[in-house]
Design brief:
This protein is mainly beta. It has one helix at about 110-115; strands spanning about 10-20, 25-35, 45-55, 60-65, 80-85, 95-100, 100-110, 125-130, 135, 140-145, 150-165, 170-185, 195-200, 205-215, 220-230, 235. Strands 1, 2, 3, 4, 5, 6, 7, 8, 9, 10, 11 and 12 form a 12-stranded antiparallel β-sheet that branches. Strand 6 (about 95-100) and strand 7 form a beta hairpin.
Amino acid sequence: DAPHDRLTEWWYYTGHLRDADGGPGRYGFEYVIFRAERGGFPVTWASHFAVTDETVGRFQYAQRTAFGPGVDVRRAGQPGFAFALPDATGAEPWLMTGAGGADRLAATLTAAEAALAGADGLALELTLAATKPPALHDTIGWIDFGPGGSSYYYSRTAMDASGTLAVDGGAVAVTGTAWFDHQWGDFIAVGGGGWDWFAVNLDDGTDLTISLVRDADGNYPLVYGTLVDASGRTRPLPDPAFTIHVSDTWPSPHTS
């Protein structure tokens, strides 16, 4: 769970939340911290925080960057990870801590960040607890990207979540589920044509990861998947085990 001395690393959460009192609120969230090492330059950190309010169809997000080792606030001998990513003034840090599948997330937009995001008091505070063992991708938790390098990669595909969420300045109690990905290795860019990544929780308790890496010509030099059953047993899925059919495309109004 802890940071590694590698070129690229991330701690990546996505999840679904609902009003704890049975109200109509339904939300999706993403919260991720990236860590990068590039030669003799200071360690670089970047964080993304996003909330989708499914009830009203609204998406809001913010991001932060920081430099140097100060973001890593683990105490001596502390297991896992503990990050505090400050805002542009050096205050009001976003927090992410965890070890062994017991994690805590906290992020609050400053007034300046909220104005930029078109948000009003967006904030999240969650306690997470894994209900399944970590899933090691491609059998041993190591992915070979060929010329692009390699990475270690595991997921906690089922985590219970509880805490508070504020989307319009007023915090409400929420519960739900989350998915955690931790990936690190000596790679900078993988796939000249990008990649498609799916993290799916099915109603019967099955969790599914599928990843397709595209090259510049649109071919797929790397395709793999991981299936986690309801009891937590993990099975790798080779390329022939599944197919992905693109049924539609979306042109960006800003870049198309």
